[in-house]
């Protein structure tokens, strides 16, 4: 079976395998999560990050959507 090698820019959610374009990627424990899964696993996540980080993530998501 061929081995798949990811680049440093390729990050995927450990629960649903969706591409996570955020840097730094959201993590719970040692698991990277997309924002949809993060909301399910940790509903109060917004209280645990700075407003600046949330702004950075929103800008990154908007940039990805426009590409």
Topology:
Layout: E1 27-28, E2 31-32, H1 35-41, H2 51-66
Antiparallel strand pairs: 1-2
Which overall shape is indicated by the principal axes computed on the Cα atoms?
globular
Q: Specify the helix fraction band.
A: 25-40%
Strand percentage lies at 5-15%
Q: Describe the largest sheet.
A: 2 strands, antiparallel
Please give the order of strands in the largest beta sheet. Answer: 1-2
Number of helices: 2
Overall number of strands: 2
Separation, N- and C-terminal Cα atoms: 33 Å
Low-confidence stretches: none
Mean pLDDT: 88
Please provide the ordered H/E string of secondary-structure elements: EEHH
Number of domains: 1
Cα radius of gyration in angstroms:
13 Å
Characterization of the model:
The structure is a single chain. By secondary structure, the protein is mostly helical. The chain has one domain. Helix content is 34%, strand content 6%. It has two helices and two strands. A two-stranded antiparallel ribbon has the order 1-2. A hairpin with a 2-residue loop joins strand 1 and strand 2. The longest helix has 16 residues. The chain starts with 26 loop residues before the first strand and ends with a helix. 9% of the residues are buried.
